[in-house]
Specification:
globular, alpha/beta, binds zinc ion, single chain, 11 helices, 7-stranded mixed beta sheet, Rossmann fold, 6-stranded parallel beta sheet, 25% strand, Quinone Oxidoreductase, Chain A, domain 1
């Protein structure tokens, strides 16, 4: 079928809205009519080739939509279902067998390899084959996706806001609720208040953290962080973040999250820990980036851990996040501004300038 999609043709080039040819779903795949799709920082670093997915490509990996057609062998998903689209996993490696799909041994290849899981593409234009992202490519009115990436969601929540649950919000919330699991009454510092960081702030409140410190250079984001549950905010443009955290906590925080991707900030997220504290690293600097640490800091029972997609299995975790949203405990809709597919370059610019926290493309 023909559909309209945002194509990125070369490194750093703007998205071009084009008619593209989309092949129908093969075995184990489904065809989705997109209703909304979030723009994630990962889309931008792939556009700019810091993560080298082969171009030209149709990016987008935070889609939500309606199932239009189900391929052979797909069970549990039907035409008309409302779904959120998440990341790819193989389903057959030891991690996947344990339900730890976020630690799939083939995660990088499946999500950044530019192909569907069978090694082919469903997309082409007049110049040839187009690459996929996350086996999803949701910057498009229609997408074919592996059924494993598809999470069925209830129909009584607005479908156009749900896409970011598939990556950014799942990542921020899961880092707290699945990975760090802070005890009620504990303290956490969140470095970077984009959609991932602010999701962590909301999740920290859900988890019962009583000291939630949000760190960012944008005042309006710090205001929103307060509204969402931060007990303290720090603007590193005005004060030293490490000194400020020590002044608040006296002995450092129990948990920290680094979402900025800036090596010096990662260092701070480790240095601000109390003894036995844990730092979670989420931010994605260019591949090959190195960070130096004071070994003494680590030796005092401190832990540094990476987090992929919030260490959550989307099939289990996304429905929980929707329940929290319905109860008013996770108002992630406050992070969202809507754009049309034609406005995608403006949406990316607004996100990069900090004007918008989570742009979502709304399809009509
Ligand atoms: Zn796997
Ligand atoms: Zn993402």
């Amino acid at each position: 079928m023909l559909t309209k999609a945002a194509v990125v043709s070369e490194k750093g080039a703007p998205f071009q809205i084009k008619e593209v040819q989309l092949e129908g779903p093969r075995v184990g795949e489904v065809l989705i009519r997109l209703v909304g799709t979030g723009i994630c920082h990962t889309d931008l670093i792939v556009r700019d080739q810091q993560f080298p997915v082969q171009l030209p490509a149709v990016l987008g990996h935070e889609g939500s939509g309606v199932v239009e057609k189900v391929g052979e062998g797909v069970t549990g998903i039907e035409q008309g279902d409302h779904v959120v689209l998440s990341y790819s996993s193989c389903g057959t490696c030891p991690s996947c067998h344990e339900g730890k799909t976020y630690a799939c041994e083939h995660f990088f290849q499946l999500n950044f390899g530019g192909k569907m899981s069978d090694g082919t593409s469903r997309l082409k234009d007049e110049e040839g084959t187009l690459s996929h992202l996350f086996g999803q490519s949701s910057f498009s009115y229609y997408a074919v996706i592996n059924a494993r990436n598809v999470v069925k969601v209830p129909k009584d929540v607005p479908l156009e806001i749900l896409g970011p649950l598939g990556c950014g919000i799942q990542t921020g919330c899961g880092a707290i609720l699945n990975k760090l699991k802070p005890e009620p009454g504990s303290s956490v510092a969140v470095f970077g208040c984009g959609s991932v960081g602010l999701s962590s702030v909301m999740a920290a409140k859900v988890a019962g953290c009583t000291t939630i410190i949000a760190v960012d250079v944008y005042e309006d984001r710090l205001e929103l962080a307060k509204e969402l549950g931060a007990t303290h905010t720090i603007n590193p443009k005005r004060e030293d973040a490490l000194e400020a955290i020590m002044a608040i906590t006296k002995k450092g925080v129990n948990y920290s999250l680094e979402t900025s991707g800036v090596p010096q900030v990662l260092r701070q997220s480790v240095d601000c820990l109390a003894v036995s504290g844990t730092a979670a690293v989420i931010g994605a600097p260019p591949i090959g980036t190195e960070v130096s640490l004071d070994v003494k800091t680590i030796r005092q029972e401190r832990t540094i851990t990476g987090v992929v997609e919030g260490s959550g299995n989307p099939q289990v975790f996304i429905p929980k996040l929707i329940e929290l949203y319905k109860q008013g405990q996770l108002p992630f809709d406050k992070l969202i501004n809507f754009y049309s597919l034609e406005e995608i370059n403006q949406a990316c610019e607004d996100a990069e300038k900090g004007i918008c926290i989570k742009p979502v493309i709304k399809f009509n």
